[in-house]
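Ops channel
N.P.: pipeline sanity check, posting one input/output pair.
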């Protein structure tokens, strides 16, 4: 599995959607240690920061509503809620790989559900009280795009359910065995 994930990161970096740790260090030659994966800086990738105008130009209306305004698409309407293909789900806004189909499962909620992210530091979490009670919001660690929420009612081995909006993702199919 680790080799599979490494291959995904390498292939995406070659396409320009994601940078490897070594490439990010080259960006900051004055202080390459600043991009090391440490407790003080757990993300090895360079943050994506854009103005609201730049995000509006890049994303369609629904993508902007979900990713930048923390909206939610209607259940059972998203492109990936019932996707059964093998591959990787990446952030629609910045291309960071977020979830693998190996951890996707059918939760019955109408949104794609995963029991863990592709890498521990690929997603960040915040507390959300928007609907009157405490929830844990999940966002892309690279661009801070809203993805959905995580709940503690998922399957083993983590017991977590990352309930993610399809519109915040794009899917890259991996054909195994070829």
């Amino acid at each position: 599995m680790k080799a599979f994930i490494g291959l995904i990161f390498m292939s995406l970096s070659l396409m320009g959607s994601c940078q490897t740790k070594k490439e990010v260090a080259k960006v900051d030659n004055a202080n390459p240690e600043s991009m090391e994966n440490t407790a003080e800086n757990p993300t090895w990738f360079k943050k994506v920061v854009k103005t609201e105008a730049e995000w509006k130009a890049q994303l369609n209306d629904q993508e902007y509503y979900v990713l930048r305004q923390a909206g939610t698409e209607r259940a059972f309407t998203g492109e990936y809620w019932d996707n059964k293909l093998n591959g990787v789900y990446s952030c629609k806004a910045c291309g960071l790989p977020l979830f693998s189909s190996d951890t996707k499962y059918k939760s019955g909620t109408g949104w794609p559900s995963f029991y863990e992210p592709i890498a521990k530091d690929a997603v960040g979490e915040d507390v959300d009280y928007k609907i009157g009670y405490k929830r844990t919001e999940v966002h892309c660690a690279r661009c801070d795009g809203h993805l959905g929420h995580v709940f503690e009612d998922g399957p083993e081995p983590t017991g977590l359910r990352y309930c993610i909006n399809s519109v915040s993702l794009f899917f890259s199919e991996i054909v195994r065995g070829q």
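N.P.: looks fine end to end. The chain has one domain: 46-173.
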